[in-house]
Amino acid sequence: MNSEYFMNLERQYGANNYESLEVVLSKGEGVWVWNVEGIQFMDMLSAYSAINHGHRHPKITKALKDQIDRLTLTSRAFFNDKLPLFTEKICKFTGKEMFLPMNTGAEGVETAIKCMRKWGYEVKGIEPETGEIIVFEENFHGRTTTIISFSTDPGSHDHFGPFTPGFKIVPYNDTEAVEKAINDRTIGILIEPIQGEAGVNVPDEGYLTKLQKICRKHKILFACDEIQTGFGRTGKRFCFDHEGLDPDIIIMGKALGGGVYPVSGVAANKDILGLIKKGQHGSTFGGNPLACVAGITAIDVLQEEKLIENSATQGTYFMKLLKQLEGNSKVEKVRGKGLLIGVVIKQSAGPAKGYVKKLRDEGLICKETHDTIIRFAPPLVITKDQIDWAFSKIQKVLGD
Ligand SMILES: *Cc1c(COP(=O)(O)O)cnc(C)c1O
User: Fold this and answer.
1) Rounded distance from Cα 228 to ligand 1 centre (Å)
2) Among all residues, which ones are annotated catalytic?
3) What is the domain range of residue 173?
4) 50 in the same domain as 105
5) Which residues line ligand 1 (CB under 6 A)?
6) pTM above 0.85, yes or no
7) Where are the beta strands (DSSP E) in the chain?
8) 148 and 241 share a domain?
9) Do both 288 and 318 map to the same domain?
10) In terms of domains, do 30 and 135 share one?
11) What is the pLDDT of residues 149-181, one digit of tens each?
């Protein structure tokens, strides 16, 4: 059974909600993956930054195998002996007082929205069910009906209504627009510190600092969606660390699961997260022992193996190499932080998808976002030699 067989089978029975690159993977290790024919590729997407630790990190897979042989799921109807350790681990890692575990990123965002609203009504004193959260053009926070209600991407949004009210959309990287949008019903701001899906949109230096100041001045909440940018992806613990910020709410997901298991959640102090009382929110799988072991080990490995530092070092090096292509006949711009890098292809050079296919033929798999941007986001375990190898392939495809 070859790649063709599997792709056709999926095309026959699977819903068509993804346009997958034509490569059928069956094995992975570190930065490498193999297709069913045994051909090796470097993974330059890392499952949208969920594989920060590399494929099948031995310490993470061992911890999960051990846990599978002990206990996998209890529901929160009972305590288990892993969730307490996980909540402590996250609180020490984030510096926040409380953590609420969920599974997928979108659920983490939904949890944050519910917390923000509760705080708006019970602490700030906004008239219940009338509050507004400020969000940003080209945002990506997930796929649930409430979250896509404030998406500005027609494909994500249109024909999925009626939509959830209570969101005000303003341009990204524009503090004046935020100031203007604030009124006496404003609860807070929900933002991606770098807009990953929008094409690695990096805001101006100081922009996030100004937003946090605006939030403090108006006594509204500052919530950062670090699902894609967290856990070392941008060369710091969280992306907001580049400006030394302290958001009221941190939303996590993706790499928190160690590349194995869906784990997400929200960290905040008691004055916010403490407002969610018994029975008011939950998840059958959220906080299950297997997920907790994935999360605990993911953070341990991140720290023990200094993956955040490696992301900063290799990211700076990779960026320096890629910048050599900037302004040639194909590459308009290279932008990013750490190992989250976007290469903007010139309009005149045709769609990014064509280059993504050529890169695959050279043994490097990545994905375009929109028509003109290629995202390079390798696992954070990548070495300098592997970056050199990747760049030689990229140069072959995107060089003059
Ligand atoms: C991926 C992502 C999400 C959604 O996560 P899922 O696990 O796919 O639900 C939310 N926000 C950001 C910034 C993301 O990158």
Assistant:
1) 7
2) 140, 225, 254
3) 59-304
4) no
5) 48, 104-106, 109, 140-142, 192, 196-197, 225, 227-228, 253-254
6) yes
7) 25-29, 32-35, 40-43, 98-102, 132-136, 167-170, 186-191, 221-225, 249-252, 264-268, 331-337, 340-345, 364-365, 367-369, 373-376
8) yes
9) no
10) no
11) 999 999 999 999 999 999 999 999 999 999 999
